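Posting for a labmate who doesn't have an account.
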Amino acid sequence: MDELNRIPENITVIQPRRVIKDYAVGIYARVSTNRKEQMESLATQVSGLTRLASAHRTWFVAGIFLDVTSAKTGTSRTEFNRMISECENESIDIILTKSISRFGRDTQECLEAIRKIRAAGKRIIFERKYIKKQLKSL
């Protein structure tokens, strides 16, 4: 039996490495107007969220989605919709955004978007006040 368990000297055993998954992060930022202070806020949002993503060694920024439009019901938010499509197409694993208010002012629309993202198996992290929830209950 010992003869069967013994590894010949001319064979090198290579131990498997732990596989670490890299997560594609989408950063979403929105402001309601193109006024100077709003555009500065947009830059601050992106900068802060990019730093947050880079603090995690298994995360990489796969896309930055920017809207300069109101989040009122019925408005066109092209980048927001593209971000949701990227989640559904498996291009994004995690969405980082400043706060839930960036997702929308209308509660129903906001919840629908969150449900779509969660249905695709993706995480949403709201950076403001460290609201880091996967929102599984929605």
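Reply:
Got it, the structure tokens are right above this. The chain is about 35% helix and 20% strand.
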